[in-house]
Amino acid sequence: MSHEIRNHEVRKTDAEWRDQLSPAEYHVLREAGTEPAFVGEYTDTKTVGVYGCRACGAELFSSTTKFESHCGWPSYYAPLAEDRVEYIQDVSLGMRRVEVRCARCGSHLGHVFEGEGYDTPTDQRYCINSISLTLRPAEGT
Predict the structure, then answer these.
(1) pLDDT-derived band of residue 29, with 50, 70 and 90 as boundaries?
(2) pLDDT tens-digit map of 72-92
(3) Quick one: three-class SS letters along the chain?
């Protein structure tokens, strides 16, 4: 996991982001907020497809890596590819965490945790806000 901040392909002014996103989307995606647990539209979704960044549309996670963590937010054990996300050290809330952002536009997605003992191939849990994502169902589903 690289912890560098990248130059983003999609760049918009604060005013442009506010025009594009709802206040709740803006708070999470652009201000690194968190939606309340167990209320997101994708928390329990089992639809086959790809989850993209709600701000820029970049494809980030596959339903094939989504798993039930019972934490209150959608959980994935890996992004589609490592270059789809960026990782930022987050020391807010008096603890050390790793923030996950969209590599294409820099929008906040959630956090990634390791070593929690979930039965997944990576032993990682990408805890992602539903409001940061848009699900594109696979054709025929």
Answers:
(1) very high
(2) 999 999 999 989 999 998 887
(3) CCCCCCCCCCCCCHHHHHHHCCHHHHHHHHHCCCCCCCCCCCCCCCCCEEEEECCCCCEEEEHHHEECCCCCCCEECCCCCHHHEEEEEECHHHCCEEEEEECCCCCEEEEEEECCCCCCCCCEEEEECHHHEEEEECCCC
The CA-CA-CA angle for residues 30, 35, 41, to 5°, reads 110
**Is residue 2 pLDDT above 50, yes or no?**
no
Separation between Cα atoms, residue 57 and residue 104, nearest integer Å: 9
pLDDT at 6: 62
Determine contact, residues 73/61, Cβ cutoff 8 Å: no
Integer Cα distance of 58 and 103 in angstroms: 9
Q: Return the active site residues.
A: 127
